[in-house]
Write a structure and sequence with these properties.
There is one protein chain. This protein is of the alpha/beta class. It has two domains: 36-133, Elongation Factor Tu (Ef-tu), domain 3; 201-366, ABC-type transport auxiliary lipoprotein component (Rossmann fold), CATH 3.40.50. It contains six helices and 14 strands. The protein has helices spanning 7-30, 138-155, 157-176, 178-191, 258-273, 341-366; strands at residues 37-44, 56-59, 62-72, 80-87, 97-103, 108-114, 127-129, 201-203, 222-223, 240-241, 252-254, 290-302, 308-319, 324-335. The strands form three sheets. The protein has a seven-stranded mixed β-sheet with strand order 5-6-2-3-4-1-7, with no helix packed on it. Strands 9, 10, 12, 13 and 14 form a five-stranded mixed β-sheet that branches.
Length: 367
């Protein structure tokens, strides 16, 4: 028995399949994610290496479509015309910037769209003009840069040769005068205070030992605060009058600032005179009955006329209520045979010894 083909059923199935394909395409273009599209014409003013139909189109980094057509401009073969199809909702403007970017390790080219504020007229699709050099890859940019460098070097080969020759002449001159250059640099370094710092030499003021027998001792407690002085005397440097250049004292330093050094050596002198009734510093415990206030007037080397060391002090004794008991001006000077640190220290020791002896005798009588 011969089987009869169900032609009606087969025809119905084929027709249904065709309708399903058309429906899928319609859904894909309208509802399934691609949605309605708008075509824009793009013109590149240079080569677009690697750009193909189907390449992606990015707007602010987001994929919005693809390239649908590529061709050379009939008016200018250096230009490339392209048609891009992007989602209708993409805010493409008449001044939207167009470029070509290369993504990934393989450098796949994509068309990039960015920004724009000028809205095109209704019904008019703007022609987007890419920036010059937009299609230039990093390799091409490097080649062009090297080509320009080579052109500059070629155009200036003569001056470059002369410059190199001058450098050679200059380096030869430096080589012949190395010693002189080293001397100049050493002088500059010394003038600006560079290099290894010079070693400072510290000098102390010697306390007099032989002050005579303590015929009379202090009958009340005495304190010697730090002497007062003008700012110029608040230093460890040797002072000169008049001020001048004294290179022998460049590394000279007193053991402490002049006021603190005098305070310490005066207290030492009183202790050498009578250790049992030695004066106190104001920072020591307890309140003294009297204070010996010292104001430094001079502590210097005078170089006008015969060189000499000068020490001048104003001494005041006040009671615990701040009432002045007595005051006195004490001065001493010592001649210098030679203005040098060793001779100056010996002269200061001798002058201070007379100052300390006179001050101790006067204070013991007053207190």
């Amino acid at each position: 028995m011969e089987t009869r083909a169900p032609y009606v059923l087969i025809g119905t199935f084929v027709l249904a399949a065709i309708l399903a394909v058309f429906g899928f395409v319609y859904w894909l273009n309208n509802t399934g994610g691609i949605g309605p599209r708008t075509n824009y014409h793009v013109q590149f003013q240079g080569p677009v290496p690697g750009l193909l139909v189907g390449a992606g189109v990015l707007f602010n980094g987001i994929r919005v479509g693809e390239v649908t057509q590529l061709g050379l401009s009939p008016d200018n073969p250096r230009f490339v015309n392209a048609t891009v199809s992007v989602a209708t909702t993409t805010p493409v403007r008449a001044d939207t910037k167009v470029g070509l970017d290369f993504q990934g390790l393989t450098g796949v080219p994509v068309v990039t769209l960015e920004g724009g504020t000028i809205v095109a007229k209704s019904g008019e699709l703007p022609v987007l003009i890419a920036e010059p050099g937009a299609g230039q890859s990093m390799t091409q940019a490097a080649r062009d840069a090297l080509r320009r460098v080579d052109s500059v070097l070629q155009d200036n080969s003569g001056p470059l040769k002369d410059t190199i020759a001058n450098f050679k002449t200059f380096s030869d001159g430096l080589a012949r005068n190395t010693g002189k250059v080293d001397g100049i640099l050493a002088g500059l370094e010394k003038m600006t205070g560079g290099g290894a710092p010079a070693q400072k030499i510290t000098y102390d003021l010697r306390t007099p030992q032989n002050l005579g027998p303590a015929g009379k001792t202090l009958s009340a407690s005495l304190a010697i605060p730090e002497p007062t002085a003008v700012a110029m005397l608040q230093t460890q440097r040797m002072l000169f009058s008049p001020v001048g250049d004294n290179p022998g004292f460049a590394e000279f330093l007193w053991a402490d600032s002049i006021p603190k050094l005098l305070q310490a050596r005066l207290i030492d002198s009183f202790e050498n005179y009578d250790i049992a009734h030695a004066p106190l510093r104001t920072s020591d415990l307890g309140q003294a009955d009297f204070q010996l206030l010292i104001d430094i007037r001079r502590f210097r080397i005078a170089t006008d006329g015969d060189p000499r060391v000068e020490i001048g002090l104003t001494a005041r004794i006040v009671d615990k209520n701040g009432k002045l008991v007595t005051s006195r001006l004490i001065e001493a000077s010592e001649k210098l045979d030679k203005v040098e640190p060793a001779a100056a220290i010996a002269a200061f020791d001798a002058a201070f010894a007379r100052i300390a002896k006179e001050l101790i005798g006067w204070t013991v009588q007053a207190v």
